[in-house]
């Protein structure tokens, strides 16, 4: 997994704006398929504009309050990866596609831990000391409401959530680093399930168990954060980004 | 790693138990251990035609989705609906209650190309 990687910098504004949410997922899946076909590993960094609510691959569709999403101009998209609903728009998203290593190195948890090394090294360059999260077990409908071994925390608060898909010998992992908060959150966009805590209590819990770079006093400029993550992946994981490309402009 | 001698195995980490022209299929102990706690299995449809080594189902473990490949070609004649309520059986009993689907094989000789336990053990060691 070490060695030559391609870096795709999708932060720069392109004519026509960034892809819509479905386009972002298509781009991630295209990376996975390219690696499965024998292509080099790829790291991509991107943002979401307009905001989008991404659902896990098998998350029930009726978790989503589509009217609430439409009222706030939030796109809804299904990720190819596992996990639960995640609101994008004030985050920086990374995606990494690479061949699945053989043996124990290819375990889901081993790969989360490996990529966490790059993310932690990158965040350290921003003065943020993150660690791999504890495992809370299966989550409710909102990704950031729980912590699992795939996630990064600062103190006890979740800063980064990630998810994986693997197919044909290749792995795609993508995840979001919270830069700041939007004026609304996932709880405004999903339906409560029977037995869920009251929404304002749930919101207080979500706020108390998550943290943003802004709240940590760290840089929030996406370009600055992206550069730190790229340097973290390179130094922490011994990767060489031999080519750096911007998203092709159509 | 538990690898029953009487089963055959695919390089994509499925096991096959052959009974006449029927092949009962699940994922190996190695595979379930790689994935971690299984939380959902997307089963194939009964009646679906499957091709050897082509994807026909998916399994979600903790924040990871993986494809399941049929080791043999044929028609799906049975699926393990109990996994809807107890997907964790894929972890706890991968060769028993964690079975996933049964294929009526179009060409039983495809089994001959699958790995025996020793060959699969060598593959994953």
Please explain how this structure is put together.
The complex is a heterodimer of chains A (250) and B (125). With 250 residues, chain A is of the alpha/beta class. Chain A contains 5 helices and 11 strands, in the order βαββαβββαββββααβ. Chain A has one domain: BirA Bifunctional Protein, domain 2 (2-Layer Sandwich). Chain A has helices at residues 21-36, 66-71, 108-124, 199-209, 222-237, and strands at residues 3-9, 42-46, 52-55, 75-78, 86-88, 91-99, 131-132, 152-154, 157-167, 170-178, 239-246. In chain A, strand 3 (52-55), helix 2 (66-71) and strand 4 (75-78) form a beta-alpha-beta unit. Chain B has 125 residues and is an alpha+beta fold. The relative contact order of chain B is 0.27. The mean pLDDT of chain B is 96.
Question: Topology, pairings included?
Answer:
The complex is a heterodimer of chains A (250) and B (125).
Chain A: E1 3-9, H1 21-36, E2 42-46, E3 52-55, H2 66-71, E4 75-78, E5 86-88, E6 91-99, H3 108-124, E7 131-132, E8 152-154, E9 157-167, E10 170-178, H4 199-209, H5 222-237, E11 239-246
Parallel strand pairs in A: 1-2, 1-11, 3-4
Antiparallel strand pairs in A: 2-6, 3-5, 6-10, 7-8, 8-9, 9-10
Helix pairs in contact in A: 3-5
Chain B: E1 8-9, E2 14-19, E3 22-27, H1 29-35, E4 38-42, E5 49-50, E6 55-61, E7 64-69, E8 74-79, H2 89-92, E9 101-105, H3 117-124
Antiparallel strand pairs in B: 1-2, 2-3, 3-9, 4-6, 5-8, 6-7, 8-9
Summarize, please.
Chain A has 250 residues and is α/β, with parallel strands linked by helices.
Q: Identify the biggest protein-protein contact and residues per side.
A: A-B, 27 and 20 residues
The CATH level-2 architecture of chain A is identified as 2-Layer Sandwich
Report how far the terminal alpha carbons of chain B are from each other: 10 Å
Mean pLDDT reading of chain A? 90
Q: What CATH first level of chain B would be assigned?
A: Mainly Beta
Q: What Rg of chain A do the Cα atoms give?
A: 17 Å
């Amino acid at each position: 997994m070490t060695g030559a990687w391609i870096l795709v910098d999708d932060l720069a504004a392109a004519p026509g704006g960034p892809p819509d949410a479905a386009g972002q997922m298509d781009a991630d899946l295209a990376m996975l398929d390219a690696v499965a076909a024998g292509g080099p590993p790829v790291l991509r960094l991107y943002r979401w504009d307009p905001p989008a609510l991404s659902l896990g691959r098998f998350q029930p569709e009726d978790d989503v309050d589509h009217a609430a999403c439409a009222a706030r101009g939030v796109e809804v998209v299904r990720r190819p990866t596992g996990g639960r609903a995640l609101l994008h728009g004030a985050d920086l998203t990374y995606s990494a596609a690479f061949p699945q290593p053989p043996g124990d190195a290819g375990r889901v948890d081993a790969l989360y831990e490996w990529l966490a090394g790059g993310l932690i090294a990158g965040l350290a360059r921003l003065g943020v000391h993150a660690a791999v999260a504890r495992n809370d077990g299966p989550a409710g409908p909102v990704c950031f409401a729980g912590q699992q071994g795939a996630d990064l925390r600062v103190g006890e608060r979740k800063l980064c959530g990630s998810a994986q898909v693997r197919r044909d010998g290749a792995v795609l992992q993508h995840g979001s680093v919270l830069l700041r908060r939007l004026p609304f959150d996932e709880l405004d966009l999903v339906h409560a399930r029977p037995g869920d805590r009251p929404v304002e209590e749930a919101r207080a819990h979500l706020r108390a168990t998550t943290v943003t770079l802004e709240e940590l006093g760290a840089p929030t400029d996406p370009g600055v954060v992206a550069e730190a993550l790229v340097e973290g992946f390179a130094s922490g994981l011994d990767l060489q980004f031999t080519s750096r490309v911007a998203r092709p402009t159509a | 790693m538990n690898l029953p001698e009487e089963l055959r195995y695919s390089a994509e980490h499925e096991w096959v138990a052959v009974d006449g022209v029927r092949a009962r299929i699940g994922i190996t102990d190695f595979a379930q251990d790689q994935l971690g706690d299984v939380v959902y299995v997307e089963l194939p449809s009964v009646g679906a035609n499957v091709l050897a080594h082509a994807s026909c189902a998916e399994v979600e473990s903790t924040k990871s989705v993986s494809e399941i490949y049929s080791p043999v070609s044929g028609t799906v004649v049975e699926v393990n609906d109990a996994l809807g309520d107890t997907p964790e059986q894929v972890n706890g009993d991968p060769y028993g209650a964690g079975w996933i689907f049964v294929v009526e094989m179009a060409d039983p000789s495809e089994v001959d190309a699958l790995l025996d336990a020793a060959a699969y053990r060598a593959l994953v060691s």
